């Protein structure tokens, strides 16, 4: 019985320090971040309109920023909100964020861009 206990203890220690265990530890973190990013993007998607107006105004001028920036902001609002909804629906598959910057407040002076999906 003592030998069986030692064998089980050694097996447990080996599996605890295996790479699979390390990957299992980071998986909840990755899916939690993806769910949180998705939720934040759905809620704050409407802030893309004033953000894009400000960025376009600084780059092209106030008149252009207020007109073209408004319509571009609507497009980015829809894009950020939809990618947030996709992140919420598929949070269990850890992928990189589609929208850059991942959260609207990360880099407020940079225009929003979109990249293809990649696994983390």
Q: What's this entry about, in short?
A:
Helix content is 68%, strand content 3%. The chain has a domain of 83 residues.
Description:
The chain has 120 residues and is mainly alpha-helical. It has a domain at 32-114. Helices cover 68% and strands 3% of the residues. The model has no long low-confidence stretch (mean pLDDT 86).
Topology (elements, then pairings):
Elements lengths: L1 H15 L2 H26 L3 H13 L1 H28 L9 E2 L12 E2 L6
Antiparallel strand pairs: 1-2
Number of helices: 4
Q: What's the mean pLDDT score?
A: 86
Order of helices and strands: HHHHEE
Q: Low-confidence parts lasting 5 or more residues at pLDDT below 50?
A: none
Main structural class: mainly alpha
What is the strand arrangement across the widest sheet? 1-2
Distance separating the two termini: 44 Å
Largest sheet: 2 strands, antiparallel
Q: Calculate Rg over CA atoms.
A: 22 Å
Q: What fraction of the residues are assigned to beta strands by DSSP?
A: under 5%
- Overall, the morphology is rod-shaped
Helix content: 55-70%
What attributes does this structure have?
rod-shaped; two-stranded antiparallel sheet; mainly alpha; about 120 residues
């Amino acid at each position: 019985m003592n030998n069986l206990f030692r064998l089980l203890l050694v097996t447990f220690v080996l599996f605890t320090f295996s790479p699979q265990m390390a990957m299992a530890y980071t998986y909840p973190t990755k899916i939690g971040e993806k769910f949180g990013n998705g939720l934040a993007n759905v809620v704050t998607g409407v802030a893309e309109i004033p953000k894009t107006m400000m960025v376009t105004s600084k780059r092209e001028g106030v008149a252009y920023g207020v007109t073209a920036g408004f319509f571009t902001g609507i497009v980015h609002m829809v894009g950020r909100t939809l990618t947030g909804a996709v992140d919420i629906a598929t949070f269990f598959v850890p992928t990189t964020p589609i929208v850059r910057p991942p959260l609207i407040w990360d880099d407020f002076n940079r225009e929003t861009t979109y990249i293809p999906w990649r696994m983390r």
